[in-house]
Specification:
The structure is a homodimer. Chain A is of the alpha+beta class. Chain A has one domain: Winged helix-like DNA-binding domain superfamily/Winged helix DNA-binding domain (Arc Repressor Mutant, subunit A, Orthogonal Bundle). In chain A, the strands form 2 sheets. In chain A, strands 4-3-5 form a 3-stranded mixed β-sheet. The longest helix of chain A has 19 residues. In chain A, 37% of the residues are buried. Chains A and B meet through β3, α5 and β5 of A and β3, α5 and β5 of B. Chain A binds a DNA duplex through α4.
Chain lengths: 169, 169
DNA sequence: GCCTTGCCTGTTACAGTGTAACGATCGGCG
DNA sequence: CGCCGATCGTTACACTGTAACAGGCAAGGC
């Protein structure tokens, strides 16, 4: 179940996960809470940190386990509530096809749409944004008279790194 | 006026798709089984029929219940196996965001991609295909060096029918 | 100070979703 | 006949998610 976490983030963006990304996300959350008068509690911060540092989709129960200490167990239901908050404000994304969560790798708000590239070999998830895809989606939706509220675009396949690894042997 | 084929019917109520659609799907399944030497068993056919006649996404356990009779209970696990077969061959689709299944409304194979428009008000699912979206997706994937295997595009929102109803009421 | 209010969290219990494992059955084939 | 492969029934179990209720804690009004 544990994989090669060095896979992911192809050309589009700098940096992967790790402490830098985590600090950036936490800072964004604090700013957001400040501005909107929301509470960025310890549980929510720790949940965000766990998700941000993993580098692959984490289930709610996995997060709960990581947040638990030998005398202080964190129940999954608490994690779900924290995740509700985080997803609502665009700090983490839910991967519907995996029932798992990943940190938001872009600064976009919760309303915008992202494309998730999920590697079947290493389990990494790469988040990209394409104005072209959004435009064509918007056109199709308008044509169908459909008013979108949220969009899920998840592509499963093999990432560049794993393709190279397979060819190499 | 294409790009959005005959999917203007936003099903409300139990009998949105109707026997015609069902018969067409069953016929396609039989042809497919004939050609590929597969077994289109009674369970698989009945599962397909139930899904095709519902007009909205059905969970595996709902299907099991509909297939069960007062002396002959069908377990969910059997339904899952039938659904595996049906999805593998493009006869039904899985809606990841709902953990539910809908009949395939197009003749496309399992490998192609579809866009699902899921109405939050009436629960109907409309399946459309857009070459434009596929093109832009392909471009983005190629740019990222990602080799796609399956694609999930699910838009939640409000269908045209429900928008009109809300304004009127 | 005290009380109320609202939000967050802990806890329990439970519903819904999906899979593993094993055995039985059936049809085809040497 | 026995073997083989695929399907299906059954049980058991793991994983995912939510409902309901109680306690804590900060903010604001009396």
């Amino acid at each position: 179940m544990d994989g090669h976490d060095t896979c992911g983030h192809h050309g589009h963006g700098p940096a992967a996960h790790g402490p830098a990304r985590t600090a950036e996300l936490v800072a964004r959350a604090e700013r957001l809470a400040q501005d909107l008068g929301l509470q960025f509690t310890a549980l929510r911060r720790r949940t965000l940190e766990v998700v941000a540092e993993e580098g692959r989709p984490l289930g709610a129960y996995d997060i709960a386990e990581r947040l638990s200490a030998p005398g202080k167990r964190v129940a999954a239901v608490s994690v779900y509530r924290a995740l509700d908050f985080l997803t609502e404000h665009g700090l983490v994304h839910r991967i519907a096809s995996r029932n798992a969560f990943v940190p938001c790798e872009h600064g976009h708000g919760a309303g915008e749409s992202a494309v998730f590239l999920i590697c079947r070999s290493c389990g990494s998830v790469d988040e990209t944004i394409s104005a072209e895809i959004e435009r064509s989606l918007d056109r199709t939706l308008a044509q169908a008279g459909f008013k979108p509220a949220s969009r899920i675009v998840e592509i499963e396949g093999e990432c560049g790194t794993c393709q190279g690894r397979q060819e190499a042997g």
